[in-house]
């Protein structure tokens, strides 16, 4: 038993080693510091893996380039004050239900949705951001693989669902999207200028002969947490 000084914390610690053992020539650290080093190495690997995952998602067009900066810790608290209650609930959203964010233009719906999506992304979830209009265009333009990819993601931020350009054909694709995600227990963050009740009426008007699907679509959004954002536009 001899006494050595830890190279990290500089505290003395005991080791079972005979005098003259070549092991003594090695730089040594105490057990607590070894554990600290291991945790740091694990954290560093996880950080690199997250960066790689982010780059792949951006290259595939699944996340916006500025996604890494859309997080709750970088949100402007002064701008949140108008909707402090909604922001507090968004921060506590666990991803166990869908999330429907609605309010006037420029009230921060998409930013809030991205912050919620980012929280799931860093926890390891498979995430996609797409506008509802683009999703339905992809469903029509023989981009079935893209449509399937979005349907299968753990979390999807579907932006501006009330601006999707729904018609009698596209409403079927929208129904397929939500039906698949409900069955697979995947979660969707939805943004719109109108509330969920008005969304059903809006889709029914746009759906024409398939208007009955509108009620079915909104029903498949459940379970859902609804947050309304109010106030003047934050843009500019």
Describe the model.
The protein has 236 residues and is of the alpha/beta class. It has two domains: 2-55, no CATH class; 62-229, Rossmann fold, CATH 3.40.50.300. The chain contains nine helices and seven strands, in the order ββαααβαβααβαβααβ. The strands form two sheets. Strands 4-5-6-3-7 form a five-stranded parallel beta sheet. Helix 7 links the parallel strand 5 and strand 6. Helix 5 (132-140) packs across helix 6 and helix 7 packs parallel to helix 9 (212-219). The longest helix has 29 residues, at 31-59. The relative contact order is 0.13. The mean pLDDT is 89.
In short:
The protein is α/β, with parallel strands linked by helices and 236 residues long. It has helices spanning 31-59, 77-80, 84-91, 109-122, 132-140, 144-152, 170-183, 196-207, 212-219, and strands at residues 2-5, 12-15, 98-103, 127-131, 155-159, 187-192, 224-229. The protein has 2 domains: 2-55, no CATH class; 62-229, Rossmann fold (3-Layer(aba) Sandwich).
What's the number of structural domains? 2
Q: Give the oligomeric state.
A: single chain
Tell the overall outline: elongated
Q: What class would the helix/strand composition place it in?
A: alpha/beta
Q: What would the average pLDDT be, to the nearest integer?
A: 89
Number of helices: 9
Proportion of residues in β-strands: 15-25%
């Amino acid at each position: 038993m001899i006494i050595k000084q830890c190279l990290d914390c500089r505290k003395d610690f005991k080791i079972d080693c005979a005098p003259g053992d070549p092991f003594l020539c090695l730089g040594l650290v105490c057990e607590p510091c070894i554990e600290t080093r291991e945790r740091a190495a694990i954290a560093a690997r996880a950080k690199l893996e997250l960066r790689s995952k982010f780059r792949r998602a951006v290259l595939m067009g699944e996340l916006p380039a500025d996604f890494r900066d859309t997080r709750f810790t970088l949100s402007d608290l002064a701008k949140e004050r108008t909707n402090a209650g909604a922001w507090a609930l968004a921060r506590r959203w666990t991803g166990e239900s869908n999330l429907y964010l609605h309010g006037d233009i420029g009230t921060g719906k998409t930013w809030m949705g991205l912050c919620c999506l980012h929280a799931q992304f860093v926890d390891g979830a498979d995430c996609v951001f797409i506008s509802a209009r683009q999703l339905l265009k992809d469903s029509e333009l023989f981009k079935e693989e893209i449509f399937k990819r979005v349907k299968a993601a753990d979390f999807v931020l579907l932006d501006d669902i009330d601006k999707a350009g729904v018609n009698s054909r596209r409403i079927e694709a929208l129904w397929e999207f939500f039906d698949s995600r409900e069955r697979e227990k995947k979660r969707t963050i939805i943004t719109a200028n109108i509330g969920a009740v008005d969304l059903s009426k809006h889709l029914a008007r746009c759906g024409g002969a398939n208007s009955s699907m509108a009620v079915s679509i909104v029903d498949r959004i459940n379970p859902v947490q609804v947050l309304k954002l109010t106030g003047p536009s934050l843009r500019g």
